Amino acid sequence: MFKKVLIVEDHESVSISVQKSLTDLGIPYDSRDYVYYCDDAIKRIEKAIAENEPYELLITDLSFEEDTPQLLKTGVDLIKAVKEIQPKMKTLVFSIENRAHVAQLLLKELDIDAFIPKARHDAKDLKLAIEALANGKKYFSNNLKQTVKDETPFKFTDYDTVLLKLLANGTAQKDIPIYFKKHNVVPAGLSSIEKRLSQIKTTLNLSSNEHLIAYVKDRKVI
Amino acid sequence: MFKKVLIVEDHESVSISVQKSLTDLGIPYDSRDYVYYCDDAIKRIEKAIAENEPYELLITDLSFEEDTPQLLKTGVDLIKAVKEIQPKMKTLVFSIENRAHVAQLLLKELDIDAFIPKARHDAKDLKLAIEALANGKKYFSNNLKQTVKDETPFKFTDYDTVLLKLLANGTAQKDIPIYFKKHNVVPAGLSSIEKRLSQIKTTLNLSSNEHLIAYVKDRKVI
DNA sequence: CCCGACATTACGGTTTCCCGTAACGTTTAG
DNA sequence: CTAAACGTTACGGGAAACCGTAATGTCGGG
Description:
Chain A has 2 domains: 5-140, Response regulator (Rossmann fold), CATH 3.40.50.2300; 158-218. Chain A contains 10 helices and 6 strands, in the order βαβαβαβαβαβααααα. Chain A has helices spanning 12-24, 38-50, 75-85, 100-109, 122-134, 147-151, 158-168, 176-182, 190-204, 209-218; strands spanning 5-8, 32-35, 57-60, 90-95, 114-117, 139-140. The longest helix of chain A has 15 residues, at 190-204.
């Protein structure tokens, strides 16, 4: 089992619960630390490396309240920073996010070792994950919603998200070509923009731009 | 201190932590129960009344995962139901919601006794609240964000939300009068609808319907 | 170099939205 | 009852979005 664990979680109640789970797994009090901010986390990790007692496991949330300015704003930022200074540390993400494709993306892009969504039986889930990691395995929670892929058979490209963000920010459709040409986004023609929007709406059975914006906001595409 | 407490929370990790807080306050194990669903909660409460050992305190979340169909879908539904059968029970809401005006609304409309947002020091906050309630006081967390009122000086009416929901669902502006006339919403004239939308956008400095929909989605107006 | 396939842009007609003005209806005060 | 004030609706011109089609550009293979 792990001898040194760091918990990064800005909700005290959740942090307490994670600590209890570690206790249940036989990880003693002095084997773990907890912090409320990513910036504190990276400092601790650096210090632990310097003292030749590096952490073995990182348990982190993804989103943090931005009440005080931080260099590392999200769990993703933190994991990237950790991978730079201690690439072999095991990383477990414990987040309210429950969409399988988001978890898979983290698994692939950031090479995390486990993803647990905060849900009905998340404490049990968490323990199973930690045990799996201690045995050198990866752990992908089965409480993740696979349905999202089915609900959204449509794949939004980077071009789409830029376009949708401009619309959601109030840019008139006819002015988008100006922005695209300035920022070297192609295709920049108004006609192409109209066609793309039309195609997206047809595919997703959406009948207006307002409908489309509501759709992507609900699904956190933008 | 309370002798019988019911915790309604669908995240196991949070539930565990709330229970630990109760333990810290000297409320023993057999004095409390916890459930994952609102429907289970109301059953327990009814049973407790029938057995002449009613609960004294209800600690509930607001939003629940809708994985299985429930009669009571939200904490608000639950509290309303509870107030009908046991109006004197103390009610404490423990939610991710941290906007002061939402909490105040619950305080006023549902006559809840305390509101604690899940945040950095929510466990401490929760304990303070429970102690206050045990002493017959109400407790309004000071971790709530007062800023929202300033950010949104605009007050959306019921008419506005109906209108915006129609737009967000893809109803064409020109077709909204048809819907309004059918459902006896006034004013129903296209001209009035245009004027109202225009007024909202001018007031909030929004330049298009897309912009407006993004705005209300971000602020959970609809 | 030429050609075809494809992506991108340009253009024009139609619909919808936008916005100002005027007409109509209702309520209230005198 | 009338007049004024206000809310609602009707109308019309202009702008933007929508959508089909044609023209132009781009890239690779022959």
